[in-house]
Recover the amino acids of this structure.
């Protein structure tokens, strides 16, 4: 019965989304300000994001390439790109479950559409991601990789990845407000996913039991963006998997959102 | 124009226990037999409101603490949505219930002007047109380029006040009158407040001060236990309210 009622109100999600896009100045302003303020009092500013990523990747890359007996010029670019995307995914999802809980200064105080806050968080993480993506150019330069035309695929696949993440973020932020232990659950899950997803290891190292990768959405999310950057075409099965997941996520997040959005203010 | 038809507003108050996913899961798995979830309490904040408000009204809200004044204001401001019933509002609503909303202590005065104005529905272009007036009126000078964390509370009030009163709206929603205590600023700011209120088509003002209500409003809503006890001309309603208080 709930689901049936929610289906009738399904357009709330769409109307709020359209409203948030029309009011993009708010969330663009807030997310830029957030990033600027965090680094305003430091000398190299927000390039701390890039620097700490470089330190992480180079140290992990050197040690793990020995550990996996892999060629550093193959392993380090792979690790760098995988980890940069992973950082984007995990950062966004980890913060999503606490987003509305930490928005008490907006929700219940002024009229604000929660999608605006979610898009603000998404933008903040895209800003961080765009600082990290500079490392790809360093990698190209350092390992003398010339990107081919497949790199153009990375734009649509990034959009596909981001749309998926947006829908997960809607879902997690609502659940995180209702159930306060959700952020612990999400953090745990993200930690586990980091180790079972091919980020620090090559998929080819898994000789049997390929389903570990095939059924892991994160593996596909990363793969569709990593392949074109590394000069391969994104695997079509991964693209289809991501499109399929996107449809499922869109339906479930729009049902949950339309069903519960009126009550969010009382859950604070 | 505002129209309320059989509007109810219910709060759901949850305890700490009910906000656990783990407990909810056990609850479902055990069919609720072992862990009973009785932590949700519903409070009826507003009860069957029916009212029709035409443009041009200046409405004061009175009632005891907990009578539903702020709930009513938040309903009009769109912060709460009615649990049942119909609420129709024509026009842009501006609420001054939380004027400091969005103020970031580390951001400069100018940046905070943008934040407050954007959150209250202005576009960047509108703000650019108004920013000189806002800055002049606030008299903050070079402080506008400093982080607001170095401001005194009076300076911060002046900043927020200058932004809010520069915004045009059809319907104004105020929980107590906004104002500044700065002696030199009072004269100037009350003129600006007058203009700000006069520009609006409908005003809602909740206040405990009868003087202010008499000064600003022409109509009055008397709220009691979440219901509209009476609505009418300000003097009649204030008299009725005072009469009813005498017997308590």
């Amino acid at each position: 019965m709930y689901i049936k009622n929610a289906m009738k109100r399904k357009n709330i999600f769409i109307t709020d989304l359209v409203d948030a896009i029309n009011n993009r100045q708010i969330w663009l302003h807030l997310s830029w300000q957030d990033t600027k303020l965090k680094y305003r009092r430091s000398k190299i500013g927000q390039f701390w994001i890039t620097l700490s990523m470089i330190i992480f990747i180079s140290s992990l890359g050197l040690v793990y390439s020995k550990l996996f007996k892999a060629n550093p010029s193959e392993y380090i670019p792979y690790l760098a790109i995988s980890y940069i995307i992973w950082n984007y995914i995990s950062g966004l999802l980890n913060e999503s479950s606490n987003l509305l809980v930490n928005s008490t200064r907006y929700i219940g105080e002024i009229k604000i559409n929660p999608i605006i806050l979610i898009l603000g968080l998404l933008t903040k993480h895209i800003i961080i991601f765009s600082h990290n993506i500079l490392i790809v150019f360093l990698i190209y330069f350092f390992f003398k990789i010339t990107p081919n035309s497949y790199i153009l695929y990375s734009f649509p696949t990034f959009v596909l990845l981001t749309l998926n993440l947006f829908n997960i973020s809607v879902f997690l932020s609502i659940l995180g407000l209702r159930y306060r232990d959700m952020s612990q659950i999400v953090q745990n899950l993200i930690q586990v996913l980091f180790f079972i997803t091919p980020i620090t290891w090559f998929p080819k190292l898994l000789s049997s039991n390929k389903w570990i990768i095939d059924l892991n959405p994160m593996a596909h999310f990363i793969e569709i963006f990593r392949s074109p950057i590394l000069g391969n075409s994104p695997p079509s099965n991964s693209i289809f998997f991501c499109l399929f997941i996107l449809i499922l996520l869109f339906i479930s997040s729009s049902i949950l959102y339309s069903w519960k959005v009126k009550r969010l203010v009382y859950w604070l | 124009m505002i129209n309320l038809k059989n509007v109810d507003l219910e709060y759901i108050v949850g305890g700490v226990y009910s906000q656990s996913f783990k407990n909810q899961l056990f609850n479902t798995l055990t069919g609720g037999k072992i862990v009973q979830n009785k932590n949700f309490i519903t409070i009826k904040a507003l009860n069957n409101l029916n009212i029709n408000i035409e443009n041009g009204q200046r409405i004061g809200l009175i009632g005891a603490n907990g009578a539903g004044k702020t709930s009513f204001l938040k309903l009009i401001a769109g912060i709460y949505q009615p649990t049942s019933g119909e609420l129709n509002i024509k026009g842009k609503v501006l609420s001054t219930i939380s004027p400091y909303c969005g103020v970031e202590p580390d951001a400069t005065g100018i940046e905070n002007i943008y934040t407050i104005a954007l959150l209250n529905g202005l576009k960047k272009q509108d703000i650019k047109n108004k920013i000189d007036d806002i800055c002049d009126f606030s008299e903050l000078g070079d402080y506008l380029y400093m982080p607001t964390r170095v401001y005194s509370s009076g300076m911060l009030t002046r900043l927020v006040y200058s932004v809010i009163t520069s915004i045009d709206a059809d319907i104004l929603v105020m929980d107590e009158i906004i104002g500044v205590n700065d002696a030199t600023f009072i004269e100037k700011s009350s003129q600006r407040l007058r203009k700000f209120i006069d520009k609006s088509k409908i005003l809602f003002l909740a206040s405990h001060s009868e003087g202010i209500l008499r000064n600003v409003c022409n109509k009055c809503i008397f709220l009691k236990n979440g219901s509209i006890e009476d609505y009418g001309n300000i003097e009649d309603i204030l008299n009725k309210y005072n009469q009813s208080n005498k017997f308590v």
